[in-house]
Amino acid sequence: MKVRLFEVFTSIEGEGIFCGTKTLFVRLAGCPFSCFYCDTVHALPINSGCEYNINNACKLIDSKLKNNTYKVNFTGGEPLMQHEAVLELAKYIRLKNIPTYLESSCFDFDKFNQLISHIDYIKIEFKTMDSKFITPKSYEHTLTNELMCLQQSVLQNKKPYVKIVISSYTKESEFNRLLDSIFSISEINDISGFVLQPVYGSAMPNLNKLLQFYDLVCPYYKDVRIIPQLHKFIGAQ
Ligand code: SF4
Fold first, then answer.
1. 14 lines ligand 1 (CB under 6 A)
2. Ligand 1 midpoint to CA 40 (Å)
3. Which residue range forms the structural domain that includes residue 109?
4. Which ligand 1 atom is the nearest neighbour of the CA of 131?
5. pTM of the full predicted structure?
6. What is the residue with the minimal CA distance to atom 8 of ligand 1?
7. Binning pLDDT at 50, 70 and 90, where does residue 174 land?
């Protein structure tokens, strides 16, 4: 089996509930989307990066792994594009007693479902239409898959956390609909966090907007957090 990797490196987790942890990032090539705020555009083509057989990919991971690594992130691009290879790499990493973490847009439930039992930490990202990544028709299909991935993670007691990227364009009506959908299939204790991540750059939402969206989550989930991407501020990868 082959895997196409864009890069493998150790850095500081810059997003979400594990922000600040020493992490090995395994960035896979390929993503079906093109969100306007994407900060890994070079990894989006499926032919980006380099191809490895699984043994050589494991050797590359070993060469980049450092002491006290908290977890190994499968990121992208979109890891589900190469889910069979991720499955093999996740098995290998778990043999070393290091937790595995999946960062995914959860666009394909079947692929996600094949992988989930080998993943320790799961971030379920819900896209909004203002990401401009997809047509309205495809959006409904993606949302259905994201919700199925959340539901399955909850059923398997994985305690996933939810992330939604907020830009200056994000609409309150759409956000409310997302909240209704998410909390119709999950209870407070089913998830380990709810993170609002502001877009960095020209579409960055202002403080009022962030606090407004924070307040919308509170009736469903009190421990909501607004967490910007740490690595952008410290100049890390
Ligand atoms: S889903 Fe993620 S990797 Fe793909 S385009 Fe959007 S932000 Fe970039």
1. no
2. 7
3. 2-230
4. 6
5. 0.94
6. 38
7. very high
User: Which residue is closest in CA terms to ligand 1's atom 6?
Assistant: 35
Query: How many domains does the chain divide into?
Result: 1
Going by CA atoms, what residue is nearest to atom 3 of ligand 1?
77
133 lines ligand 1 (CB under 6 A): yes
Banded model confidence at residue 211, pLDDT cuts 50, 70, 90: very high
Residue 49 lies in a domain: yes
Which 3-state string (H, E, C) describes the chain? CEEEEEEEEEEECCCHHHCCCEEEEEEECCCCCCCCCCCCHHHCCCCCCEEEEHHHHHHHHHHHCCCCCCEEEEECCCHHHHHHHHHHHHHHHHHCCCCEEEEECCCCHHHHHHHHHHCCEEEEECCCHHHCCCCHHHHHHHHHHHHHHHHHHHHCCCCCEEEEEECCCCCHHHHHHHHHHHHHHCCHHHCCEEEEEECCCCCCCCHHHHHHHHHHHCCCCCCCEECCCHHHHHCCC
For residue 235, pLDDT over 80 is answered with: no
Does the residue 88 lie in any domain?
Answer: yes
Asked, for residue 237, whether it belongs to a domain, the answer is: no
Write the CATH number for 142: 3.20.20.70
- Nearest atom within ligand 1 for CA of residue 77: 3
